[in-house]
Write a structure and sequence with these properties.
554 residues, mainly alpha, 56% helix, binds 2-acetamido-2-deoxy-beta-D-glucopyranose, signal, proteoglycan, Glypican-1
Length: 554
Amino acid sequence: IDFAEMDFTATVLLLSAVAVPSFADNAASKARSCSDVRQFYSGKGFTLHGVPQSEISGEHLRVCPQGYTCCTSAMEETLSNLSRREFEGLVREAGRSVQASLNAQYRNVDTYFLELLDGSERWLEESFQTALGGLYGPNAGVFRDLYADLRRYYRGASLNLEEALDEFWARLLERLLKASAPATAPFTDDFLECAAKQTETLQPFGQAPGELKTKVARTFIAARAFVQGLTVAGEVVRKVSQVPLSPECNRAIMGLMYCPHCRGLGMLKPCANYCKNVMKGCLANQADLDSEWENLIDTMLQVAASFGSNPSMDSILHSIPVHVSEGLRTMQENMEIYTSQMLQACGNPESTQSSLTVEGKKFSTVTVLEYKPSSNAAVRLEVQITDVSSKLKEMDMYWIQLPQALCNSKAAPSPASDDNCWNGMTKARYLPQVIGDGLASQINNPEVDIDITKPDMTIRQQIMQLKIMSNRLKNALNGNDVDFQDNSDDVSGSGSGMCTDGLCSHSGPRINSSGDRTRISAYPSENKASGTVRQAHPSIALVLLSLTSVLLRR
Ligand SMILES: *[C@@H]1O[C@H](CO)[C@@H](O)[C@H](O)[C@H]1NC(C)=O
Ligand SMILES: *[C@@H]1O[C@H](CO)[C@@H](O)[C@H](O)[C@H]1NC(C)=O
């Protein structure tokens, strides 16, 4: 953990004594001067009005041990409030350093992933643009939409990734069909609808759509869950770090921080175990985050490791153009069978029966793209994974190390056996044992009086958020996107927050036939034209064939 490097100036200030010479000890018989306390008190920015010149009897004290004191009731309350503000500030400060680390990792991973995705898109554009020339422009939207959907999905949009990929192939097929019809006699919508319906049985793109789906979807589900994990972890830290101190904790913190001053022992440091018990009592609910927090970190480490395992993330993102080119080659190879079967099912489009002609019979073989990752790319991925993993491991024990970290400072390294420390009452050895972590262990905390039957609700909710996120990540490791699962288990259903706008329905693809994004895959599987089997028109096959070969020539 990075605590050593954190800015603990405030802690040092908090726990260290004000190092001014004291004449108190050898003046026990007389009323001692309050000059040390006055100096300390005004140094904190408070007015000296009403602060005694010499010690007074302390029956009025409500938190600090009674006895001769320089603190009035008002001073005790003021210092108690100050101790609360300072302690809450320290907890927030510690949380901010963890949040900052998580944010930095989010930016790193996010930048890296989007760079890979941009690279994949550029490669696809360049390959297909060179091949298509003027034909690419009108059809570029199909590919751009694919990448736009992938980006939106990765960003957390409620979008069904598998449906989006299906839709891409459907629209690609539609474009290919449309392009094969002459401009003077375009295919009717009925014909295109029917052709789309045949996709499932005829599989014009062969295995490519299925391969794209399994490989690419898995990586996107994992990447999306991973960056969500970084975000959720940061949010949990932020919310938990803002939980206010309980009044019981405030008393204990006051006793730890400022009662020594009221007792005229401001130069003493708190005993180490005394400090631990106060902090463990005050941060008991926070410590209960530990097991789910570690669980989340462990799962994120597994997901991070999966990015590097073969096939690595960069080759998977670059496999998108590869699978698209494979699909088009399959179409080219099976063109004749495909078109004859399609025309059998859908009939000959009437408008084109006589006018469809073949423009150019170039039967060049489709080249399937091939991605060879550079050694540079492999190194970059490795660095990414190592970096994020080591940062995550550093914060693995955050919640149970926090009490110790707050006590640890150069100012308070007193061994348990030390007699020369503030034990909450006086300058003497602290005898009680150090108690355990978490709320249930606080039943015998000698310093903080907590009701262990009343857990902090904010923190309970954050523990639930951690559970939900771990569950999402574990599903992602198996290639499952819990947002789109029908059988959600106990935790994924509530409060996952990713699927709140009603767009996550599990029904079939939404039909929206306006504009460019016509979804031709969305029609029910009734076959209107199956009764009338007409003779296949061979020329469609030839046009499609020449188009795909143009598409794939590099
Ligand atoms: C201490 O804090 C309490 C609660 O916020 C407030 O009501 C009270 O006025 C404060 N007292 C002093 C002396 O600042
Ligand atoms: C359909 O798409 C158009 C734009 O192409 C959009 O304005 C409209 O809201 C969409 N309808 C639905 C139901 O998604």
